Amino acid sequence: MIKINLANKNRNYSVFTPALSGFYANYVSRQQHSNYVDPERIPKKFENGIEGLNFLNINKGYFFYDHFLYSAGHAELDLAKAQVPEGMIHNRDKNNTVLIGDSGGFQISKGVWQGNWMSPEGQCNKTDNQRALVLNWLENTADYSMFLDIPTAGLFHLDENGKPRCGLNNYEEFRDATIENNNYFFNHAQGKTKFLNVLQGTTYQEADDWFEKVCKPVLPYTKGWAFGGVQKTNANHSLRRLLMLKDQGLLDKQHAEWVHFLGTGRCDHAVTYTAMQKAIRKYVNENITISFDCASPFIAVANGQVYTHNSFTTKRFSYIMHKMVDDKVTGQKDEPWPWDSSPIGERLTWKDINYYNPGDLNKNGKEGKTSWDSFAYALMMGHNVYEHINATQMANRLASRPSSQMSTWVPPQYLEFSDLVDELFSKDFGANQKAIDAELSKHDKLISLVSKTKNLRKGSTFNNLFEEDDVVDYESDDFEDDKQGKLEQLEKSIA
């Protein structure tokens, strides 16, 4: 069977970086050291065994892809213990792959990593030890890394008393705690990874304040930018900040190699980020790369869904997921698994997924309700990863054609948006934020349509910024931010 190199298909597009699941990495990595999976259980057409699921292996992967994101929040931070469960990550060919390292600030935000986060270095050993573990992991694992920002979405992760679980109670405390994390990081950083300056804030006022007080002080230590929260998916916020960065000289080669949008993987976002990358390369910095990530391929399987096809029309621009068949039947299991559009799927039979027959006992010695064992989840995840990457690339291929040829395939607002972005970046606003805001307001209707939002300039909280129709399900586009953390819990239930 032909192995596919998806890295060669990115061309000049923004780069989707799958947010790798620790569950998936664990299957690939442990098989490198032992028969973690019984050889009889491995699909018969897997000529390279489970290592074929390792899409970072250019020689043995059933497909190859060169970019991914992994989070310290899900990682084994003790590097001496990480080789067996996460060898896929640590033993990758660093000349052929790029790892974006997320610092795991979301774990702080939702209260998983407890600490006195507003305390300066030297005042709380527990907090400093966690900061040190994350910094060491990033420097010895990732090519580009986020600093340890604490997303303000933590205001909505509440304990039984209705208070944020992380112990931070308002925007100012999230900001100040991030500043203390930065102070620790850049007092101890050894220069082994390139840090991205993380932008947060749900309103214009918060975004400007965060930029001045969190981002500016660490400019000498960073090599690019990362957009989180509202700023990543709302084109108004994204363009507003990028245009200001351009006029301040902070997107030039000295200050920026990379721009990353955290926790989003929708096809429409893929083409809007490509429009931004194209304009920045044209007018500012021809070497810059824009990337974006999500864990959707893995979360989907944990919820029993697989990618079945794409829908590219003027009405819907998306990959599509559906519930996978989970049926304990005994007959015709040697038939091919029907979703053979991926190099993983074409190597599978029904038996590889619907593994258990009636009466079969699982690893706990019990007959479960599902026909899937945990390895079936890993197989479907491999299929989904390929399909998600392929979908974002296909979306970009369609949107990159002349608009007169794509009227059937691409919603017109994304083609109009690409022209608008080029026009905006061709202008010099003199680093005048009011001038930028005034220009963006002229195009508010188009930008809001692309972002699927209300007018953001008047919003005061995250919930003000999205209409009910913006909530997306598993059969359409990407999941909300706070579902990213759900994967870890779901993986534990099927491991």
Please describe what this structure looks like.
This protein has 495 residues and is of the alpha/beta class. It has two domains: 301 residues, Alpha-Beta Barrel (TIM Barrel); 95 residues, no CATH class. It has 16 helices and twelve strands. An eight-stranded parallel beta sheet has the order 2-10-9-8-7-6-5-4. The longest helix is centred in the last third of the chain and has 26 residues. The two termini are 30 Å apart. About 6% of the residues have low confidence.
Q: Which descriptors apply to this entry?
A:
globular; two-stranded parallel sheet; TIM Barrel; 495 residues; alpha/beta; single chain; 2 domains
The strand order across the widest sheet is 2-10-9-8-7-6-5-4
Q: What number of domains?
A: 2
- How much helical structure, as a percent, in the residues? 25-40%
H/E series = EEHEEHEHHEHEHEHHEHEHEEHHHHHH
Q: Can you count the helices?
A: 16
The radius of gyration is 23 Å
Oligomer: single chain
What low-confidence regions span 5 or more consecutive residues with pLDDT below 50? 454-485
What is the SS-derived class? alpha/beta
Any idea what the shape is? globular
Largest sheet: 8 strands, parallel
Distance between the termini: 30 Å
- Arithmetic mean of pLDDT: 90
Any idea what the CATH architecture of the largest domain is?
Alpha-Beta Barrel
CATH level 1 class label of the largest domain: Alpha Beta
CATH topology of the largest domain: the name is: TIM Barrel
Question: What's the total number of strands?
Answer: 12
Strand proportion: 5-15%
